[in-house]
Amino acid sequence: MKNEPKRHVVSTIVVIIAAVAAVVVLFVLHYRQQQQLVREPEESVSQAESNTIEWKGKKYTYNNNLINILFLGIDKDLDLDTSYMPSDAGQADCIMLLSLDKETKEGRILQINRNTMTQIDTYDSNGSVFGTVNAQLATQYAYCIGGSRSCWATEKTVRELLYNLPINGYFSLSVDGIAQINDALGGVTVEMTEDDTEINLEFQAGQEICLKGEDAEKYVRYRDTSVFNSNEKRMQRQVKYVTALIKNARSHGGSALYNIISPFLDKYIVTDLDGKQIDALSSYTYLTDEIQYLPGETVMGDKYEEFHVDEEKLQEEIIQTYYKEKQ
């Protein structure tokens, strides 16, 4: 019985050592995970690969001539390149994939509905993933901590939504930057439709109007939230505006776009593109008659509108647009 206290002491020490070891192991694993998460956005994003897929009995290879750039319009009136708490970074109200064909020098646009329901990664205040939720695609930016981290998170989610389609870079613009860049270009001219009088009575159908300042911001942001699926009209205006802006930039010369937006890079823009790549965006002829929209339908959810993707049609569109049939 004399050895009984000693056994208790030894047992207690063993338990303490085991607990400390477990804590150390968990800390090391968490640290490594954190380091990996910090590095991921800085690494080069997925590049187009010559992978072969099968669909409906035929084989297809990815078109390596394509460069896919994700464009995000962020509904945030403060600096984009700043760390925020999750849910405070703003939402991606405009989501477009610009596909540039290096061979034909043509650009195509896939407009992705902000209300698209998909699996969203949730992040903590350090930018670490801790879960997923089924939510609107626009909220993926908000569920992270802003800046390049939110851009990277949104790019990852869009890539997964599009069946792991390669995305070669991102370009995000805050709402406050619209008027600034618009006016730096001398204005952007678009042709008005009947619906545009809701924004401004002077926006009469058929008229070509050079948008300036706040009018440019209203044109791309406005929607009547009391009308079901009003986001659809807004998406159409966003495509018209972006293609008109790029056309305007091209008319200024080959290196105009970067020179024009460079004063706003620190405040309104977050991108992983360099100056040469930004200038290249305006060197392509965008096929405005071939604008694509994510296939599916908008329904009313418990609280908000939800866009549900038609998976079969989406897969078909992706294969026909981004792949070539293997001979």
Q: In terms of topology, how is this protein built?
A:
Blueprint: H1 4-39, E1 52-55, E2 58-62, E3 66-74, E4 92-101, E5 106-111, E6 117-123, E7 129-136, H2 139-142, H3 147-161, E8 169-174, H4 175-184, E9 188-191, E10 208-211, H5 213-221, H6 231-251, H7 256-261, H8 265-268, E11 269-271, H9 275-281, E12 285-286, E13 292-293, E14 296-300, E15 305-309, H10 311-322, E16 323-325
Parallel strand pairs: 3-8, 5-12, 5-13
Antiparallel strand pairs: 1-2, 2-16, 3-4, 4-5, 6-7, 8-11, 9-10, 14-15
Strand content: 25-35%
Count of helical regions: 10
Ends distance: 85 Å
Poorly predicted ranges (pLDDT <50, ≥5 residues)?
18-50
What's the count of strands? 16
Tell me the Rg in angstroms.
24 Å
Describe this protein's structure.
Residues 18-50 have low confidence and may be disordered. This protein has helices spanning 4-39, 139-142, 147-161, 175-184, 213-221, 231-251, 256-261, 265-268, 275-281, 311-322; strands at 52-55, 58-62, 66-74, 92-101, 106-111, 117-123, 129-136, 169-174, 188-191, 208-211, 269-271, 285-286, 292-293, 296-300, 305-309, 323-325. A hairpin with a 2-residue loop joins strand 1 and strand 2. Helices cover 38% and strands 25% of the residues. With 327 residues, the protein is α+β, with helices and mostly antiparallel strands. The chain is globular, with a radius of gyration of 24 Å.
